């Protein structure tokens, strides 16, 4: 694959990051520098790390960045759960995001497994 832009996992994670950023427009203004900032950072971190890792010179570096993306995925899920419990996010929307995060997690895991096989 020549570009990270061709990776479906990158495309879907960019879509998710954009949706999270749009969602934050409806959060309380007093959360602008709190949970909103955290949500934005971890959502943007996922596709950013996939892209950065893909552009690195080694498979091991790509795997390292995919691991970071997985960490950001878990962080995003946690922040969304907190948002839902605070009443900033409807339970149905939280469930939708959770399903998408699980799918992205499976995709990243599959990519990691494929890359690890290349190292063997």
Describe the structure.
The chain has 120 residues and is mainly α. It has one domain: 23S rRNA-intervening sequence (de novo design (two linked rop proteins), Up-down Bundle), CATH 1.20.1440. Helix content is 78%, strand content 0%. The chain is built from 4 helices and no strands. The protein has helices spanning 8-23, 35-55, 59-85, 91-119. The longest helix has 29 residues, at 91-119. The radius of gyration is 15 Å and the shape is elongated. It starts with 7 loop residues before the first helix and ends with a helix. The model has no long low-confidence stretch (mean pLDDT 96). This is S23 ribosomal protein. One of its GO terms (cellular component) is ribosome.
Defining traits:
S23 ribosomal protein; ribosomal protein; 23S_rRNA_IVS_sf; 120 residues; 4 helices; ribonucleoprotein; 23S_rRNA-intervening_sequence; 0% strand
Count of beta strands: 0
Morphology: elongated
Query: Approximately what portion of the residues adopt beta-strand conformation?
Result: under 5%
Radius of gyration (Å): 15 Å
CATH architecture: Up-down Bundle
Number of separate structural domains: 1
- Secondary structure category: mainly alpha
> Ranges with pLDDT <50 over ≥5 residues?
none
Distance between the termini: 20 Å
Mean pLDDT: 96
Helix content: over 70%
Characterize the largest beta sheet: strand count, sense, and whether it forms a barrel.
none
CATH-defined superfamily: 23S rRNA-intervening sequence
Look up the CATH topology.
Answer: de novo design (two linked rop proteins)
SSE sequence, one letter per element:
HHHH
Quaternary state of this entry equals: single chain
């Amino acid at each position: 694959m020549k570009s990270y832009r061709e990776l479906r996992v990158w495309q879907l994670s960019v879509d998710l990051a954009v949706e999270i950023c749009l969602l934050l427009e409806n959060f309380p203004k007093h959360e602008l520098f709190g949970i909103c900032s955290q949500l934005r950072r971890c959502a943007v971190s996922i596709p950013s790390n996939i892209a950065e890792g893909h552009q690195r010179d080694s498979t091991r570096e790509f795997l390292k960045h995919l691991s970071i993306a997985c960490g950001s995925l878990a962080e995003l899920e946690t922040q969304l759960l907190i948002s839902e419990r605070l009443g900033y996010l409807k339970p149905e929307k939280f469930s939708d995001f959770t399903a998408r995060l699980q799918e992205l997690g499976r995709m990243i895991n599959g990519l990691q497994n494929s890359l690890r096989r290349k190292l063997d």
